[in-house]
Every structure is written in C-alpha cells, then in structure tokens.
Amino acid sequence: MDFENEQNKNIDENEIDNFKIDSNSMNAENIKSDSMNDTQEIPATYNQQNSEINHEMPRVEFRSNKKSLGKMVKRFRRRMLVSFVAVALIAALIGGGAVAGIMKYTNIGQQTQVINRYLPLSSDNNNFNLITNIAKIVSPSVVGIDTSVSYSNGYRSALIPEGSGSGIIIDSQGYIVTNNHVVDGASKITVNLSDGRKFPAQLIGKDAKTDLAVLKINATNLIPAKLGDSSKLEVGELAVAIGNPLGESFAGTVTAGIISGLNRNLQSDYGPVNLIQTDAAINPGNSGGPLVNSNGEVIGITSVKLTSTGGSNTQDPFGMFQSQSTPVEGMGFAIPINEAKPIIDELIKHGYVERPIMGVSVQEVTSQDAAQYNIPVGLYIAQVQQGSGADEAGLQAGDVITAVDGTKVDTFDSLQSIINKHKVGDTITVTFWRNGKTLTAKVKLMSSSNAQ
Q: Region (Disordered) spans which residues (predicted)?
C-alpha cells in the first residue's frame, strides 16, 4: 500500500529511540527558547534628527524553531501510523475467514481517509476482479425490452409506451427468454442489445404459470449466455444480477449479493411456485434478466422483488403478498434455471406449455364445510369439461374427490402436485364420494392446450 508524504517508509527501532532521546532532552531551558509562545522584547530606540525626536515603540517579535518542531510532528505521525497499521493487520487476520477487504488510502489535506470495500471470498481467492469479470462475460448477453400497446380514441390509433424489462439471449439464432409479465398484452416489443442495436421482436410463446416468455429477433453476432445448474446452489454463495432497472437510462446495471434462500415455495394465482431468494438489488426493469453465479453462469431469471407485503408497494406479478403490510428489504426472487429450461423448450417448440389436466373445476371442502353439509373433506367438483378425461370417466358435478392414486387430497395444491408427476396421456385412479358412496374411476389426463 502506498502512503503519501513519506508514509510508506518503515520506522526502525533506532528512529523510535531517537524520538525518545529528543523528547527527554527537551528541558525547561530549551522549551523556553524554542517554544512557539516564546517572546523577546526589542528595546526602544530614539533618533534625533532636525531637532525632532523620532520615538519607536517597543516591538514584540515571535520566534519559533520550525525545524525541531517539524521533526517532532513527523515522528509523532509515524508512531501513530505504525499503531494504526498494526491494528488494521490484526483486524484483517481476525475477520479474514469471512470477507476479503480492500483498503484504499487517500490524503485530503492533512487528514487520511480510509475507504473499506468488501467482496465475498471465492475458492480461487481472486476476489478483486471477480464481479468485474462476470459483468464483462455476461453483459453482452443481457438485453433491454421495451413494450408498447395500441390505443385508439375512435378516430385514430397509436402505440403508447407501456413498460420495460430485461431479457437473456439463450442462443445465437436470436431466442431470448424474459418474464411473461414484461411482455403480456404488448402490441409491439422492441429488443435493445448491449452494443446499441435495436430490433423488433416476435413473441414465440409465454406461460403465465411460471411467468416465462420467449422472444425471437433476426440479428447476427449475438452472444448467448451460458446456462448453469441451479440444483448445485448453496445458501451464502455469490449472486450477481444484471439488467435494466428503470429502463434504458440505466441499461446494464450490475448488482451483487448472495443466495439468501433456496426452494422458496410461494403461492401464486396459478399455484405454488419454487423460487431462489437473493439480496442482490432487483428493481423494476430487472425482471427477465439473469441471476448469475461466480462462474458467470445463469442460475436464475429474476422475476419479483418484495418491497412490502402490502399489495400497492410490491413488485409482485404473482400476487403472492396481498393480505399483509410489512415493509421488507433485500428480498428478491428468481426462477431457478433448471425449472425454466423445460418451459423454455416447450415454448420454443409449441408456443405454449403442455401440461396434463383432468378437466374439472374444484372447490376445497374444509372440515367445517364437511360437518355443515354432511359430505367428506376433499375437493368438490363444481364443473366437468365436456370431452375431457374426467367426463369420459363418468365424473360429475357434485362429486367430492377424496384421493388420487391412493394419496389423500384435500387441497387444490395436493391434487395438482400429483397430476404434475404425470404426462399427457397417463391414467390416474380417482377416488370420489357420491351420494354417500365411495367410488373409483380411471381418468386419462388431457393436454392443457385442449382446455376450453
């Protein structure tokens, strides 16, 4: 570390001893003659010229031994500096197991300012350039997305800017993944590349349940991001978010934090969702951008930031936090890339996600409902879709489903979790109650794309 004003010189024992000798040798006589406060009176003089008497008043002159005083100050500063460096080294040794510190010293006048910055430790101990290198590798694969909607007043129509978000280039053919809530309802989508180029984008497909969408642009020299393995994540490891918070003015913003939590099973309007939690700063416009690990691999797609559990202040496309109102900080969420990959493939292949369904609309029957209406706890069938597997198996409105494949079901989530383990065309065994009797039926699962 460099220190200005000779602060980079080491102080040996002789210099410290000399300081002590000089200090002891400063007796009362020396202090009297060398002190800044020492004064000496200059006698008055009288000059007689042309019969006039010029009277000069006594003058008081201040004298100081600047050379000796300067040496004292320099040696005192050196002694203080040695103590400060020793304390800093001890503190670094104690705290070295948790963080790596970068200490920068700058002189402002006669004061030394110490600026501390801390980076998470990595396995290769190359912390100084880690985030910088991640940004250089991943940023060319991150795009900005602007959306517009058509507006008509009856006389003329126009495109009105609606919002903005981020996206990730996933292959050189021009496919880009983003959030469904970024592009949902848009009449026009524009993709802004990191090199300044802009392209109109085609919506290939979207899935509201997972909040994912795939776009495509016709462009060359694209740099796709490398997708990682979110199953290998551990709480506490580095997480870097890259995106365009608040739009194009802040394009390519890089923020860093850690993985705060895994497998956050949160409830959405479309069922439970499994998310990665991070404290890396995520703001409106980051949605659809990458969450990256220390290897520069995309391990998540940023989707939601929780600022308050009150509905109005929450960037909450899933509608997860609507009943409470507690302000929170540093709670961002991302879709794990391992769960996003099959959805992305389905969207590219079909334009939609094919999911198995029974073809029924159900309502949960609680224990209170069961006691009141004298029916079993389970899922009350409110409607059966015509031509569905449930319809062909003979299920009717008013039946109460109590089990599927031998597993008790009493909530929509429990039913959905069993169905999600199957593929379209599989057959499940449904146990249900009807008019006081317990019956079973074989139901063939149909594709959600056929749902009316």
A: 1-24
CB 177 within 8 A of CB 167: yes
Residue 3 included in any domain: no
d(CA 389, CA 386): 9
Asked if 451 contacts 390 with a C-beta cutoff of 8 angstroms, the reply is no
pTM: 0.60
Residue that is last in its domain, among 47, 66, 98:
98
Q: What is each CA distance from 144 to 30, 187, 257, 349, in whole angstroms?
A: 74, 17, 22, 24
> How high does pLDDT run on average in the chain?
75
Tell me the helices (H) and strands (E) count for the chain, helix number first: 9, 27
Cα-atom radius of gyration of the chain, to the nearest Å? 37
Residue partners of 47: CB distance under 8 A and separation at least 6? 53, 54, 56
Judgement on whether residues 145 and 70 belong to the same structural domain of the protein: no
pLDDT digits (tens, 9 = 90+) for 331-371: 889 999 999 999 999 999 999 888 899 999 999 999 999 99
**333 and 257 inside one domain:** yes
**CA dist., res. 351 & res. 361, Å (int):** 25
248 with 196, same domain? no
- Torsion-angle region of 47 (φ positive above 0: left; ψ -120 to 50: alpha; else: beta): beta
Q: Give the phi and the psi of residue 171 in degrees, each rounded to 5.
A: -160, 165
**Strand pairing report for 360-365 and 298-308:** unpaired
Angstrom CA distances, 203 to 199, 225, 232, 284, 399, stand at: 13, 20, 31, 21, 41
Partners of residue 163 on adjacent β-strands: 147
Q: Would you name the residues annotated as active-site residues?
A: 181, 211, 287
Please give the tally of structural domains in the chain.
4
